[in-house]
Design goal:
Strand order of the largest sheet: 3-4-5
Strand content: 15-25%
Order of helices and strands: HEEHHHEEEH
Largest sheet: 3 strands, antiparallel
Distance between the termini: 89 Å
Structural class: alpha+beta
Number of strands: 5
Shape: elongated
């Protein structure tokens, strides 16, 4: 409420005070761009994502595609938790995914004589891995001897050099 001693303001005076505040003037969708410089060398200053220029309109990505990509990335990266809790084929799959995220082409290997949980090459060297998921016990010594057997099998193959 206004007291009797306060001066009455003109309506346009208030509008002048608020004209540079976009949300008060409905400017949420107004172009706030400014053009500075000279006529020969203009410089456009972008204040927001809205523009009066037809060659500079904002674009909105396809939200479904963006959500789908984000969801896919989240699921893939959340799947790395399987490295901590899984056993057997699920653990092997998690290891392959983790190596893939590191940029390595890893795969399972199986032929008529050999089967390896993980096989990949890095900097010209061939690596074999044997997966063993344990949550409350030490890794079984048999896994180490199995890995040694796998290495010997792999080296005995004619197509393996390193």
């Amino acid at each position: 409420m206004r007291s009797r001693t306060q001066k009455r303001r003109e309506p346009n005076e208030a509008l002048d005070l608020f004209k540079n505040i976009p949300f008060l003037t409905g400017g949420l969708f107004e172009c706030l761009d400014k053009r500075e410089g000279t006529a020969e060398s203009p410089k456009d200053i972008r204040i927001d994502g809205f523009s009066d220029r037809s060659d500079s309109q904002p674009t909105v990505p396809d939200s479904y595609a963006a959500r789908s990509e984000l969801s896919s990335r989240l699921n893939r990266e959340a799947g790395l938790r399987r490295l901590l809790y899984e056993t057997g084929p699920m653990l092997e799959e998690a290891i392959l995914e983790a190596l893939s995220l590191l940029g390595l082409k890893a795969e399972r290997y199986k032929d008529t004589e050999s089967e390896f949980d993980v096989l990949f090459t890095w900097e010209g060297h061939r690596f074999l891995g044997e997966a063993e998921g344990k949550d409350n016990k030490a890794v079984n010594v048999d896994k180490i001897t199995q890995l040694e057997r796998n290495l010997n099998e792999d080296y005995s193959r004619e197509d393996v050099q390193d």
